[in-house]
Write a structure and sequence with these properties.
The protein is mainly alpha-helical. Helices cover 56% and strands 0% of the residues. The protein is globular, with a radius of gyration of 20 Å.
Length: 122
Amino acid sequence: MKLSAKRTIGIAMVLCLLPIVTIVALAKDADVSKGKEVYEGTCIACHGENGKGEIPGTPNFTKKDGVLMKTDEELIAHITDGYESPSSDMPMPAKGGNEDLTDDDIEAVLSYMRLEFGTPKK
């Protein structure tokens, strides 16, 4: 059976793009893995393993209309600079109190939280 030229080119393009898609997926997994590490090392004490909050006033990340509905830019600013929720008795310190967090760490933890707690990235 002879393949048409268009179909042959289409198959070749898919085969060429497959490694790129795989690399992007692996990079995304690395980001999420790093984000989980950051969350477990910095955020979990206040926000809890399940993202529902361990301290009164801490936001529940699992609420469908909750804090994770904000844009990445706004949440990155809150994580970077610190933030006090209106219902909280205690503000979150800048970088969750971990001054060693990098911008990449903050982006990774936000990606992890969106994936883990079910709110897609904006």
